[in-house]
Design a protein that fits this description.
Structural class: alpha/beta
Number of helices: 15
Number of domains: 3
Helix content: 25-40%
CATH superfamily of the largest domain: Dihydrodipicolinate Reductase, domain 2
Largest sheet: 11 strands, mixed
Strand content: 25-35%
CATH class of the largest domain: Alpha Beta
Low-confidence stretches: 1-15
Radius of gyration: 24 Å
Mean pLDDT: 93
CATH topology of the largest domain: Dihydrodipicolinate Reductase, domain 2
Length: about 425
Amino acid sequence: MRLAAAFGKIKEGYMYMTNIAILGFGVVGSGIAAVIEKNALPIQRMLPDGINVKYILDKRDFPGSPLADRVVRDISVITGDPDVSVICEAMGGVHPAFEFTMAALNAGKSVVTSNKELVASFGDELMSAADKNGVKYLFEASVGGGIPEIRSMRTSLASDSILKIDGIMNGTTNYILTRMKNDGVSFDAALAEAQSLGYAESNPTADVDGIDAQRKIIILAAVATDRLAADSSVYTETMTKISALDADAASRCGMAVKLIASYAALDGKMSLFVCPRFVKGSNMLSHIDDVFNGIMLSTEMTGDVMFYGRGAGSYPTAAAMVSDVVAAAKNSAELPMKWKKAEDGFVIPFEENSFSYYIRIKADSPAVTGESVRLVVGDAETLASSPVGYAEFITPKIKEKDMRAAVSGGSLGEVESLIRVLD
């Protein structure tokens, strides 16, 4: 009798269990299934009947996996099943992820994703479809892996104005820069090491050229403003030109070189860009090393808020997606988002921003004296202990367009390195 009663409760519980589908069973997709299994008890505090992986969409078979019988090839099997309420998109790329996501939303399924490229490219359209169909499109895992900065912006900070965001949003590049800073290795050697450890892809372009960080700052800026910027409007600079000499100069100044993605609200518009920066030691971002991410928000009322943690990896990213599954299943109250494409001119031209700069000039250059540099850029600070054959300076704040004119016009001589400073 007790056994039958228990079975009845299990059946009843299963009927109310949140059934999900996972699109793509790679590093993140398989991580979702593992998180659901390992964290069953914490999940049940929020969803008493738990989460059941009903389908996995993948081209591959997974013999030996306990979920091998869940694999399907046709998205319509998933979108046509009324028992599936949430779909986890872990495919990556834009196509067919966009088409599958749109089909799921139009079928009345909530979708959660870690796909930063898709959110940064089509987040406005997908949110509109979710709103139209009374479901959710959630993407906490698209920025910072398991770091909960997006949900915090949409809940705890929902009544505040986000004035500024500066962040280390790519663990691969941060690992490379940490090795260059701490051990004096070259960029190429640090990159090869990152690849051998699995931090960097065989083609690392999206990481080292700032494209990954660009997508993430586009998403955070859209959360802050409800405007989705086109990637073409976001200045993005590679970090492949950073050398051991740059890392050493930053250290001598009490700073560190970091690839920083930045947003700032400016007179009803926004500044948005990604580039290497010298970060002062007084800024917490300068002390974030290895593969860790750090995101600093400056708000009108709360002031500075810092988020720190592992920005990638199977479990952190998957855990963020599972938290979104829980939020979607519970229809959690969050600040609703209805993004629209940023109007022309909403992102100010990068050349209109002002920075202090680190400059390294060849010593045989005609403009190498401190006095001649000051005539061009103002009251520049000359760095001590410069490498033989070079002179180095930290400039006061200058508009980007004016600095570019000085460099391209040759009035500063032969400039070997020019890196912007983050206070």
